Protein: Receptor-like protein 2
Organism: Prunus yedoensis var. nudiflora
Amino acid sequence: MAHPSFSSSFLLHYSFKYSCLQTNCSSLLSFASTLSSPPLNWTSIDCCCWKGITCDQDGWVTRLLLPSKGLKGGISPFSLANLTHLTHLNLSHNSLYGSLETQFFLSLNLLETLDLSHNLLSGELPFSLPSSNIRTVDLSSNHFFGAIPSSFFQQASNLTSFNVSNNTFTGLLDFSSNVFSGNLAPGLGKCSKLQVFRASHNNLSGLLPEDIYNATKLEEISLPLNSLHGAISDRIANLTNLAILDLYFNHFGGELPPNLGKLSKLKLVTLDFNNLEGALPPSLMNCTNLVELRLLFNNMEGDISKLDFSRLSQLTKLDLRINNFTGTVPVSLYSCQSLKAIGLGINDLEGQIQAEILSLKSLSFLSIGDNRFTNLTGAMKILMSCKSLHALILSGSFVGEGMPTDDDMVDFDGFQNLRLLSLSCSDRTGQIPVWLSKLKNLEILFLGFNQITGPIPSWLGNLPRLFYISLPNN
């Protein structure tokens, strides 16, 4: 009796070990039958060899990846029912339509990644996410609507990324650029592996749910452009992985948490346009990874010259405008060599501009108007050597002082990159000096609401890039 050769035995073993299971093959063909052009060309016997399909060693389909294939058609709720070992499903950037029904997920208990973004899917979301293994869900840029059920995250203990932006959801839980309203429902604290929570540009109101501070893997909380209120709890110090805290344009009040500085990974803090009060917590100066600190338009106060900014070596933007801060410009701020933008306007600061500001080689934006600074001429002599400076806003400061004259600015060759200069609203006296004619890159000039006298110089018309000049009330 002839015995099979080694090669034929190996092929038999290989075929047995890796061939697609018939039930999985049938499910895939059922799925394909609901789609229109272009065809998937799934014609070979072994579906493990089909384009977009990955199987495990036992022949179970584990991945169905068909992004950007021009697929059109509806998704049958039972078409993938037998793919019980599926871990990754990506049908993004196609033209699939219909609703996402609960039956679609009933047997997908091992699913880890679901990406159906950029399709034409509609309807309400199913009762809950498909499995406790789910980590990444992207349903963005479809036509889903209605509320996100409170049970939606019930099984999602391993969820790390959830994106449903660019839909038309309504309801209690919200995500970016929808029309959610009402309070944020509790439950996020149970998402123990959630890293990013974004819900910007909605109509949310109420308080931050207290259990959000239990989601200790959170790296980003972005809830700007809502109507949230209340204080930010000191329990935020539990979120030791937090890098982005973005809550601008809300109604948050109270003082900043004193232990905010325990968040050593913080990079971006944007709390503009709220109702925050009190002083900047000194602990914030321990956030050595901080890149942007923005607190524009609040009711904060305190002497900022007492704060030590010297450890914030990565800080590029500091915006404390429109508050009630006092003191002088902190000398320690000049140690922040990465600074590109400083906004201190509309506070109650005083003193003079120090030459140490020239150590900020990348400084392109400086707004210190509407304070009680003195010695405009001295400030201009220093600042004209800031070679990267594009915008200089001094309006409302140095009140009653004269315009720096041509004699004051002798051998003037500075401000070579300046685009915007504002010296308005300061009872400025004198005439428009000739040294301004050397600002060849100047585009916008504000000199209104002063006591400037004399003729409007003709050379203003020769500045090659100047397109806007304001001279009223002189």
User: Anything to note?
Assistant: The longest strand covers residues 61-65. Residues 1-17 have pLDDT under 50 and may be disordered.
